[in-house]
Amino acid sequence: VMSKRKREEEAEPDFDDEALDLDLDDLEDDELNDETLTKIRKFVDSAEVEGLDAVSMKRYLAGFERAVTKNSQMRIKYPGQPDRFVESEVELDEEIKKLQAIATSPGLYEEFISLRAHESVLGLLIHDNTDIAADCIDLIKELTDTDVAEENPAAVKLLVETLLEHQILELLVSNLNRFNERDADERQGVYNILGIFENFLDIKPELSDTLGAKTELLSWLLKRIQAKEFDNVKLYCSEIFSILLQSSKPNQLKVGKMNGIEVLLTAVARYKKESPETTEEEEFVENLFNCLCTTCSREENKNYLAKAEGLKLLQIMIKNKTYVRRCALRLVDYVTMRDPANCRRWVNLPGLGTLFACFMKTPKKSKKGYDEKEDEEHVASIICSLLRMLEVSEQGKLWSRVVDKFREKEMEKMERLMELFEKYRQRVKRAAEKIEAEYELDEGEELDSEDEEEIYVAKLGAGLFTLQLVCYIIAVLASADAALKDRAKQLLTFQDSSFEDVQAILTVYADNMGGADVPAEETETEKNHIKKLAGQLTESEVPLFQ
To answer: Taking the alpha carbons of 121, 123, 125, 128 in that order, is the dihedral positive or negative?
Structure first.
């Protein structure tokens, strides 16, 4: 799940009373130059707006309704003569902006709704003048802002639900389609619409399904993401797209069917040779890969990536060692997990050389975008997937090619595997000891279940999952080849460890398996498989695979 980033549009610096430093009473007309006026404007804008009371809000609303009526009458009276109704439009613009003060008093939202003011605001979303529509969009964004929601969640939720009853989602998407981003004000309107969607999704996450099913937002976002030039709107689109996909299976499946995976792959392909230029562009790339990982986690979508030659593209990205290398490894991890077809495709690329080059040598820590712990986890996970998925397919032919990688060059990859085992075993041990030291237990006293869970979570944070994956690989290789088993045992002895330690780690791994997306029967089969492998580690029988 991706974390929400607080967005600050380019704000002017704060000013206090002393910062103005102007004697307005003695100021001559000829001194009111642009610099002075700008200074005054900044000072006024920086002043804190006090919360409204009900009387003040009604006064604002009355002025707003008069401006709406007057503008409507003038447009009807003088159609096609904008110079005759432009003054009423300026007045309406000013009255809409005044309503933003209502956001300082969310306790008044219920009365705002009872006066049906929201209907007038929504009605202006289809105003012929896009500036007026953009003003109303900005107003709705302010009224539903997350800071306001934190202050009075019930009031903001009531307003959001009321707006939803009046088809605001469809109105907002229609404005996305009509706004021309070459105009700065309309581009800001697009940005604010995305802000409203984020506000709504923060308050009602279940809206993801509705937005995907009842509006054209997904297709609009996909189209906007393809724009050549990078800007803050393109970045925001990638964030909203990621939010819409992360917890919505219908949206994930819909994106797969609408050729979305190929569009996303094309968008990230621009970075296969060159890294993003800014941190914002890096964030954009991360968001796109989050979308790909989320979408391709669905079995129904994995084939779309294969058809788009996605695995070949990911292999190139990993080889080129640019910023997207880590993202590409993560996606390969996702698409090979529990998928024999993609595992076969990866081996047949051929992709084993690329994978094991990552296994043997990770980039320097100073390299941008590099995360040692994450890289090693994904590489280990991919190897596990290949060993598990290919074992039950192709009569073990491709599976043997994976195992052979650990035999070649005097079993150097076994040495690397055992190096990773010791590295993560020590990390996990230190993490456990640190948190256990925080508990002061009397003699004979045991930790309760909550404390044990806290320790387990701390171990996961230190790299327990990677350690479990490494142990799984050790167990498979030990079952596959007597020479590999002997070498593993020898290396473990050098580290003051043994197969019993590997066995214990695998047992805990099996006992904690399971997830909402994995059928219970499949989980049980996997548990039994791992426990069987663990048991064979301490047996002196003929290896299972020869």
So the answer is: negative
Q: What does the block give as tokens for 207?
A: 């809206």
Please give the model's pTM, rounded to 2 decimal places: 0.84
In whole angstroms, how far apart are CA 227 and each of 221, 222, 235, 420? 10, 9, 11, 42
Instruction: Specify whether the CB–CB gap between 212 and 222 falls below 8 A.
Output: no
> Region 433-460: what's the mean pLDDT?
75
3-state SS, one letter per residue, for 299-319: HHHHHHHHHCCHHHHHHHHHH
Tokens of 391: 């074992």
One-character DSSP codes across 262-297: HHHHHHHHTTSSS--SSHHHHHHHHHHHHHHHHHHT
Give the Cα separation of 526 and 338 in Å (integer): 11
Whether the pLDDT of residue 48 is over 50: the answer is no
CA distance 537 to 520: 26
Residue 205 has, within 13 A of its CA and on its CB side, a CA count of: 8
Structure tokens at 484: 């590999």
75/91 Cα distance (integer angstroms) = 14
- For tokens 């969607």, name the residue: 197
